[in-house]
Amino acid sequence: MRFSLVFSLLLLSFSSFFSTLSTAQNNYVPGYIVDNSGDTTHGYIEYYEWAITPSKISFKKETNTDPVVYHADDLLAFQLNNYIYQSRFVTLTYSPRSPDNALESATPKSESSKLFLFLLIDGNITFYKYFDQFGNDHYYIETPTDSIDELLYFKYYQVENDKRILHTNNKYKGQLLFHLRACNTLKSQILDAAYEPGDLHRVITSYYNCTGDTITYQYRNTDNFSAKRKRSRVKIGLFAGVSTTKISFVSGEGKYNYVLRADFKNSTNPVFGIQINAEPAKANGRWGIIMDVLVKSYSFSANYTNTWDVSNYDSYDMKMAATYLSVNPMWRYYFSKTRIKPYLNAGGYLASVLTKVDEMYHEKDVNGVITSENSTVFDDQTRRFDYGFTIGGGVKIYKFNLDIRYNYGGTSIYPVNSNTQSILFMLGFIFN
To answer: How far from the centroid of its chain's Cα atoms is residue 282's Cα?
Structure first.
């Protein structure tokens, strides 16, 4: 019963992972790129998730050629489906929108760099959108007489009369009044506009209607832009840490009594490996399917002495050690979609023995006659595989994972009724 339950869990985890992995591949759609010389090249662009504005794209001239990666510094623009992105040197401001992560001062942090911006409206007034890694949207406006400007909106706290008061900075309204000053009938619409794509889009189009200028390009689904289709994607990372393992021998054949009665101390050893994180599109950043491939080990030693009387005894010095290659498929649930993301893990593991040690020194004294021999603890009857389940949690901070897990092996590699329990502490880094 226990074997079939754990095996079913592992099988389901493997099938879910590889099903998600397969949907994350080959997401190349027709498009084009414009290089810094202004030359346009048609081909195929990888489209895997646009809930966050991409910092780079993969481009193929033909479906059967190797992809080339381009960053914002490498291109003037690119287009795929209905989406046009232009590369612009802009200021990006850290702009929290909820009380939970609001700033502690009225001065937000910002940095300047070249980014891909999503083009919403083009013409005499150009209007862009950018999604940052925290899920916040940023809007930019550019006019012939004014440089490109980020429309600012954020929440912050200030201490007033010894009380921490939440404030909202609506600077974007003053910026719109300034940049659209050629039309003096927009004031009330601007002051009523919320910081969201529909309202801002209507303000810009109203400006064009007021001035009679021509819109040369307009993205038609602005109201639904934040809900555009996402695709599954895969992230790869490395991790390392330590594990503390306890082994318990519950029952077995009478010839192994020396094992059952011995006191084996916990074993602390390094653990390291790779992680593949498959995020289904329908998960919306809330959960993923994790596949860890790790190398872990343990080493136990103990002495058991059975004294019959003052001149008769059996003494057993035992050492057992093993190094495993373990595959851990798990489900991961994220409690938030912010930069700091606590999560829970649950799944199973299947481990194969890479190396093992099974040694015993047996000394026996019978009426003053001492004999000894070197042998193995389990007569070389150990198995090659181990399996069990794992639960735990951690926190993801940008590209780093801090992880703690509990592994329970309902069966060990030894031919007696036993189990292993491990606590793993790990630090991981995600590459993409």
So the answer is: 16
> d(Cα 365, Cα 379) in Å, to the nearest integer?
22
The pTM assigned to this predicted structure is 0.53
What secondary structure letter does DSSP report for 145? Answer: S
Would you call 124 exposed, middle or buried from its count of C-beta atoms within 10 A (0-12, 13-18, 19+)? Answer: middle
Return d(Cα 110, Cα 169) in angstroms, integer. Answer: 15
**Sign of torsion, CA 68 69 73 76?**
positive
DSSP, res 4: H
Tokens of 347: 């799944």
> Is residue 92 a contact partner of residue 139, using CB atoms and an 8 Å limit?
no
Summarize the confidence of residues 398-426 as an average pLDDT.
84
| Higher pLDDT pick, 339 / 322 | 322
Q: Give pLDDT, residue 202.
A: 92
For 146, half-sphere exposure in the C-beta direction (CA atoms, 13 angstrom radius) is 18
Contact 417, 391 (CB under 8 A): no
Cα–Cα distance, 245 to 419 (Å, whole number): 10
Separation of alpha carbons 415 and 213, rounded Å: 83
CA 111 – CA 30 distance, rounded (Å): 33
3-state SS assignment for residue 284: coil
